[in-house]
Structures are given as C-alpha cells and as structure tokens.
C-alpha cells in the first residue's frame, strides 16, 4: 500500500477493505477518545484503532485539567464527575516564585483540577462506548491510502492478522510517534528541548505542603504530583547529568535530583515504576492532508511545563469533531474542514512557544536569562494585563479563532458559560452537540426564533439570555461564537447566518 505522497507504507493486507465506516480514529489517548465520543454521540459511525491491548492503560502523564478543558468536558456532561474525583488548585505554580492565581478566572472552573490522565481517559472512554463507538484494541494502524471518496487503512490485529478498513475520514490521534503522520508524508520538525528527564512513581514518607510541588534551583528541576492512591509522580531533571534514555535509572538518582531542586526528597520509597525520557518541541506543518487529520500529540508536542499537552489535544478534538459531523451529515461543505488547520495550528504554535519559554526561563543559567526570569515573575505577579494574559493562555480560555473580515467582534471568541432564561447554563445546552442560538429575553418565541422555523431545527437549540442583553449570538458546538448581531437582526439576516453555519442541505446518508 502506498501513502498519498507516494511513500510506501507498511501493510501486508491483500484481501481488500472488509469494513466501512464514517471515521477511523487511530489512538485511544485523551484526544482520540473525546473525538470518538463526539462522533458517535452525533450518530457518525466511528471505529477506534488502538495498538495497546484493552486491559493495558495508557501511561499516565498529565496531571492537570485546565479551565477550558473542564468547560469542554462540561459540554459533554463529564466535568462534574471529574471534579468529584480530582482536587482543585487555586494557584498554579509555574516555577520558582512565578505562579498564577486562578480564583479570578472568568470561568465556572476558576482552578486547575489535579487528577491523573487515566481518570480523564476512563470517563471519555465510557462515554464513547456508551455512544456506540467501536473499539479495536491490540490493533495497529500500519498504513493508509486515500482517494477521492475515502481512506483505506491497513491494520495488524491480535495474532498478526492483517485487515483493510475503509472510512470517509481518518484522524491520527496516535501520539508523538504518529504512524498516521508518517503515512501522509508529513515531517515533524523541531528539536529535543530537555534530555534525560527522570520519571518515577513513588510513595512518600513525608507529605508535601502543596498539592503540586514544583521548583527549579540551580541546575535541577523537580515536580511532584499525587495520583490519589498513595503514590506520587516525580518528574526531575539535572542539567549536569545528560544521559541517553536507555541509561538505567535508580531511586537514588531520583532522590538526589529532588533534593537539589526541592531541598528534600520527602523520604521517597517503593518506586513502582521508573523511566527516563526526553522532551521535544515539534509541530507538524499541516494538520490535514486530504481526508486525513492529525490531532493531539500526533500534531504537536512540547515540554510538560504549564501542563498543556493533554489539554491542547482535547481542544483539537473538540474543534474537529463537530466539523466532521457537519460535513459527514451533509450539512456543511467539506471546506469547513480546512478551518481545523487555520484555527488549531496557530494555537499549537503558541503552546509550543509558551511552554518552551517557561522551561528555558525555569532553567535559566546566564545572568541575562535569570534577569528575564525575575522580570517576568514581577510582571506576571504584579501587572494586571500581563497576569490576565498569562492566565488566559495557560488555562486555554484566552484563545480565539480567526474571524472573517467585517464580522462581529465576538466571532471566533470563546463564549463563557452564561445563564439562560430557563435557568440552565450554556454548557448544559451544548451537551447534545448542536449549535445554540441565544436571543434577547424579550424577543417573541416565534419567528424567526421558533424551533420550527430555523432551517435545521435538529441542529439548533434556541435559548434566551437570562440577563437583559441585546445581542443575538450563534454559538458553535465547541463553545465559540459563530455569528453575532448587536441589534435584533431581521429574519432574513438571521436565516442566512443560520444557513451559512448550519447548511441548507437536508441530512444525507453516508456513502
Ligand atoms: C512527563 C509528562 C508529563 C506531562 N504532563 C502533562 C500535564 O500535566 N498536562 C497536560 O495537559 N499534558 C501533560 N503531558 C502531555 C500529555 O500526556 C499528552 O499530551 C497526551 O497524552 C496526548 O494525548 P493524545 O491522545 O494526543 O496521545 P497519546 O496519549 O500519546 O495517545 C496515543 C495513543 O495512540 C496509540 N497508538 C500509537 N500508534 C498507534 C498505531 N499505529 N495504531 C493504533 N494505535 C496507536 C497509543 O497506544 C496511544 O494509546 C505530559 C507528558 C509527559 C511525557
């Protein structure tokens, strides 16, 4: 089999496609799971390929859910249960004395939620299964070829059995070493930023004072986070000990780095797992090639600083899922799918820049970089706009998507979780994956707002503001503003806005 770029890809299948589905998602990490759940909830046939066996969970790496991710999970009815499992933290310490206070964040989730990545995956996997997503574990994507009508994917399942599957679209959510990315011939330019990072899951004789402990002193950096089951994850790095990932690691080395960075090792003992890794900063130049998309770590990787990797992948998935649903259901032109690249690629780039900047400042060695660190600490701690910008970026609530020239200033911005006139919240109204049209409370509940009259009542929820706002606002399924008007729009203008975003065509069958 050959990729679209002509590169040979590794598949041994000779039997021809044996299955046909709407979307194949490769990888069941947080990105793939959120995406698969959204597609299945919308009735799109979806198959998830996962090379791990069912019972072996993804290595838990992330420990922090930021506000925007919690809002997305709220829009899927999952935030409350995760909030009950994790522990909220009002202040996020980035390094040294640089921390951001989250209590004034304009979000229902004015904190960072500390919980292991596998808890997020568990909730997302359950939702996807309940919605009818098909999972094939122990099944590796080995190659793909696309044509005008779809994508044929080569797989190797349990016992080495090979098979070809066919789908309208494929999403590579298969992590940093993405085979999908390779199959569509995309490079992953960037570099290793920090090498020889040590990871260990340990028990501690002394409990840290803070929920997340992080500091960098001299040449050493260490981070401690609780799993909630008595074990802590230690992440450490020492500039002076730069060895390959394959170099054996023992607890004494982890303890020493922790002592250097945090002043003590908290009596760590009984490591159940230890490893070395290196952290890269890389981004694919394109997130879409034809019918194949990249999302999450397959599209971008960066240092763990600021805890944004899983969070960015979840946002990628939330951005892509409703667009795939709209196109596959025949409501939108396939050109809508290009906006995934134009909206998410700049965000990935910004995350690479901010997390890389944090690491470089945390590990600053030269006098001028140390001075920059002190300056940034002062700026973020004491200057309102700088603090708000840093907070909005790390938590993900500050990103906005490009809006066409001449559109309302709200277009492309994140819509906060506003109260609606019936007592519910916007992010509850978003739970069925539809657009939401919010109109002033005094507008009559008939034309053009009557549920019968919008061109696509099955794709639109209508609501009124609880407050006395004059704006008419169309909210996308991912909680960003699609269109707005400050004055009551005439029915024709509203109807054409709805048609532009929800499409004129009736639903058609997948082929
Ligand atoms: C030490 C460390 C700490 C981190 N801390 C944080 C943090 O605090 N906050 C945060 O947001 N992020 C953090 N991250 C990053 C976060 O863990 C990742 O960004 C996140 O896991 C990416 O999710 P994903 O679904 O895109 O990919 P992954 O979680 O990597 O999932 C990819 C899946 O694809 C499967 N797969 C791969 N190839 C194939 C194939 N060919 N066929 C089928 N299946 C395949 C894999 O088995 C895997 O299950 C951290 C990372 C590290 C290393």
From TrEMBL:
Its cofactor is FAD. GO terms for molecular function: FAD binding; oxidoreductase activity, acting on paired donors, with incorporation or reduction of molecular oxygen, NAD(P)H as one donor, and incorporation of one atom of oxygen. Residues 21-354 form the FAD-binding domain. Keywords: FAD, Flavoprotein. The keyword Flavoprotein applies. The keyword Flavoprotein applies. InterPro entries: FAD-bd, FAD/NAD-bd_sf, RIFMO-like. Residues 1-21 are annotated as: Disordered. Coiled coil: none annotated. PANTHER family: BINDING MONOOXYGENASE, PUTATIVE (JCVI)-RELATED (PTHR43004:SF19), TRK SYSTEM POTASSIUM UPTAKE PROTEIN (PTHR43004). This is FAD-dependent oxidoreductase. It comes from Streptomyces griseofuscus. The lineage of its organism: Bacteria, Bacillati, Actinomycetota, Actinomycetes, Kitasatosporales.
């Amino acid at each position: 089999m050959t990729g679209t770029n002509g590169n040979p890809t590794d598949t041994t299948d000779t039997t021809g496609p044996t299955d046909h589905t709407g979307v194949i998602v490769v990888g069941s990490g947080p990105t793939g799971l959120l995406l698969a759940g959204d597609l299945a909830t919308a009735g799109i046939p979806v198959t998830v390929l996962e090379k791990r066996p069912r019972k072996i969970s993804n290595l838990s790496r992330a420990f922090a859910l930021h506000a925007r991710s919690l809002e997305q999970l709220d829009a899927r009815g999952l935030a409350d249960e995760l909030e009950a499992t994790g522990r909220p933290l009002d202040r996020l310490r980035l390094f040294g004395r640089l921390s951001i206070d989250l209590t004034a964040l304009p979000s229902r989730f004015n904190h960072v939620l500390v919980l292991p990545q596998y808890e997020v995956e568990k909730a997302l996997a359950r939702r996807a299964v309940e919605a009818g997503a098909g999972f094939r574990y122990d099944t590796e994507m080995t190659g793909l070829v696309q044509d005008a009508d779809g994508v044929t994917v080569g797989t190797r399942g349990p016992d080495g059995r090979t098979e070809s599957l066919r789908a309208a679209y494929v999403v590579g959510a298969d992590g940093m070493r993405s085979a999908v990315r390779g199959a569509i011939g995309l490079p992953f330019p960037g570099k290793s930023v920090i090498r020889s990072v040590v990871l260990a899951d340990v028990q501690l004789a002394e409990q840290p004072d803070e929920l997340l402990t992080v500091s960098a002193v001299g040449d050493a950096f260490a981070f401690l986070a609780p799993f909630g089951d008595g074990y802590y994850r230690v992440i450490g790095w020492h500039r002076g000990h730069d060895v390959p990932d394959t170099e054996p690691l023992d607890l004494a080395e982890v303890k020493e780095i922790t002592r250097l960075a945090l002043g003590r090792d908290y009596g760590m003992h009984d490591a159940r797992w230890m490893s070395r890794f290196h952290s890269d900063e890389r981004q694919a130049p394109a997130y879409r090639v034809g019918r194949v998309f990249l999302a999450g770590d397959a599209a971008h990787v960066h240092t763990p600083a600021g805890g944004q990797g899983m969070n960015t992948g979840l946002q990628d998935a939330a951005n892509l899922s409703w667009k795939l649903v709209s196109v596959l259901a025949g409501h939108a032109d396939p050109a809508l799918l290009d906006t995934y690249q134009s909206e998410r690629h700049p965000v990935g780039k910004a995350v690479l820049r901010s997390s890389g900047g944090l690491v470089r400042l945390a590990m600053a060695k030269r006098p001028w970089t140390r001075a920059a660190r002190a300056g940034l600490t002062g700026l973020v701690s004491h200057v309102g706009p700088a603090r708000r910008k840093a907070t909005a970026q790390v938590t993900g609530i500050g990103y906005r998507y490009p809006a066409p020239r001449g559109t309302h200033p709200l277009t492309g911005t994140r819509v906060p979780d506003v109260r609606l006139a019936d007592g519910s919240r916007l992010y509850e109204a978003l739970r069925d994956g539809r657009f939401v049209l919010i109109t002033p409370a005094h507008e009559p509940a008939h034309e053009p707002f009557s549920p019968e009259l919008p061109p696509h009542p099955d794709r639109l929820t209508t609501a009124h503001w609880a407050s006395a706002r004059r704006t008419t606002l169309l909210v996308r399924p991912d909680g960003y503003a699609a269109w707005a008007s400050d004055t009551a729009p005439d029915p024709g203008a509203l109807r054409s806005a709805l048609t532009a975003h929800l499409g004129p065509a009736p639903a058609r069958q997948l082929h």
